[in-house]
Amino acid sequence: MTMLYETQRAMRNMRKAALQRGVVAVLDVGSSKIACLVLRIDQTGTTARGDSGSLAGQAGFRVIGAATTRSRGVNFGEIDAMPEAERAIRTAVQAAQKMANIRVDHVIACFSGAAPRSYGLAGEIEVEDQAVSEQDISRVLAACDVPDYGPGREVLHAQPVNFALDHRSGLSDPRGQIGHVLSTDLHMLTVDATAVQNLAYCLKRCDLELAGVASSAYVTGISSLVEDEQELGAACIDMGGGTTGLSIFMKKHMIYADTVRMGGDHVTSDISMALQIPASHAERIKTFYGGVVATGRDDLERIELKSETGDWNHDRREVSVAELIGIMRPRVEEILEEVRHRLDAAGFDHLPSQQIVLTGGASQIPGLDGLASRILGQRVRLGRPLRVHGLPQAATGPGFASSVGMCLFAARPQDEWWDFEVPIDRYPAKSLRRAVRWFKDNW
User: Fold this and answer.
1) Distance (Å, rounded) from C-alpha 328 to C-alpha 46?
2) N or C: which end of the chain has fewer CB within 10 A?
3) Domain at 134, CATH number
4) How many CB atoms lie within 10 A of CB 261?
5) How many other C-beta atoms can be found within 10 angstroms of the C-beta atom of residue 270?
């Protein structure tokens, strides 16, 4: 635990140095694509503080380089073939550097998968002086009871989501306020340590320094949910190629995250196997003709399945759009049912607002919002990431929600546990539902 704390602090210091230099790259390592964006940071808005406190600020930024490449060596959001992943990352980073006409040495990366688990922690102390100080914040974070999350796991995020001072709850920053008893609720996200180590080693082989790492589910939520949704409570469902990430936000903080190991690539695979066509052809058919809701006209519209096997009858087959939808819908329903199960386990039904936002490349399947509203709940909308300065038009769709979220995560970081001088000998799930306990009691 001590080693992890120091590692995260070292990465925060590297990120701070990169921001001060004015240029940093963000990398989205996905199962279907790898995207790299190079950011130029405007220091006039930065309010970075010293090493003993948070560096959360409001730095302005502009995208000056962007590139994407087909993902290789990445499966279920995790690296499983190091040489192929290295080549793909090098390709994306070099293309982005060429567009930006500048070299970058530090990258901030995000990834999905790695079996994330959420824990809700709580801590309480008595304030030493009348006013809450920086040291009191450190002490109350150290008082949080860390669960035994098992060997081979690492903490990826540890964010205070709520502070309470005496009888007043819902405080975002209690420093300087008068009170006697200070308590906090902390959301902690752990992931498989091997996945993080493989990513860091792969970037090292690419001659890049890792200046930060984030969960794809988290960064997608901060880019796709509008301010009111983050405040009142909402879930963001990121339907990617190899995985479907989900995150729940409340009071502008993530309070739960999880991953379903299915995505759009599985729908493509189903089409490929059912129609006996190559995966590239199946992806094209899914993009042009796919859907999940059949109409009477779909029986009449035919799709020609071209292939080059040499068998004339096999190469000149046709299927109807209705048949294609019949292949796609069961897999999409399975993904949404699994997402519903994860949301129920997290206590999503206790939120005062139960808005659900669908984003990610696979969310663009026609009719998905209607099907999702029947499985997940009535309040479902399709989300697109926020617009950021300099982002190419081709990178503004739902498939780039995590890339845009990484820009916000890099330039405007939220407070994390390692931003404070927590005593080394006092390092801080008991159940999933504790992640939402505080706002049920104090809303």
Assistant:
1) 47
2) N
3) 3.30.1490
4) 17
5) 17
Q: Let me know if residue 121 belongs to a domain.
A: yes
Structure tokens at 361: 């490349």
Structure tokens that stand for 40 in this block: 């130029």
Q: Angle, nearest 10°, between helix axes 216-224 and 401-411?
A: 90
Q: Please state, in angstroms and rounded to a whole number, the distance separating the CA atoms of residues 423 and 416.
A: 15
d(CA 109, CA 35): 10
| DSSP labels, 376-401 | H-S-EEE--PPP-TT--GGG-SGGGH
Q: Indicate whether 179 belongs to any domain.
A: yes
Query: Residue-wise pLDDT tens for the chain (443 aa)?
Result: 445 567 777 777 787 877 778 888 999 999 899 999 999 887 654 433 333 333 334 458 889 999 999 999 898 888 889 999 999 999 999 999 999 999 988 899 998 888 899 998 888 889 888 788 888 888 888 888 888 888 888 888 888 888 999 888 888 888 888 888 999 998 999 998 899 889 999 999 999 988 888 999 999 999 999 988 988 889 999 999 999 999 999 888 999 999 999 999 999 999 999 988 888 889 999 999 988 988 878 778 888 887 666 565 666 788 899 999 999 999 999 999 999 999 999 888 888 888 999 999 899 999 999 999 999 887 899 988 888 888 888 888 899 999 999 999 888 777 777 777 665 444 443 333 444 454 445 44
Structure token digits, residue 395: 């990178």
Does 22 map to a domain?
no
DSSP state, residue 101 = T
Q: What is the span of the domain harbouring residue 158? A: 117-188+421-442
Q: Which residues, at least 6 apart from 119, have a Cβ–Cβ distance to it below 8 Å?
A: 147, 149, 187, 188, 189, 190, 429, 430, 434, 435
Which pair of tokens denotes residue 382? 């399709």
- Number of domains making up the chain: 1
Find the helix or strand (DSSP H, E) in which 43 lies.
Answer: none
Q: Are 376 and 336 in contact (CB under 8 A)?
A: yes
Phi-psi region of 125 (alpha: psi -120 to 50; beta: other; left: phi over 0): beta
82 is a domain residue: no
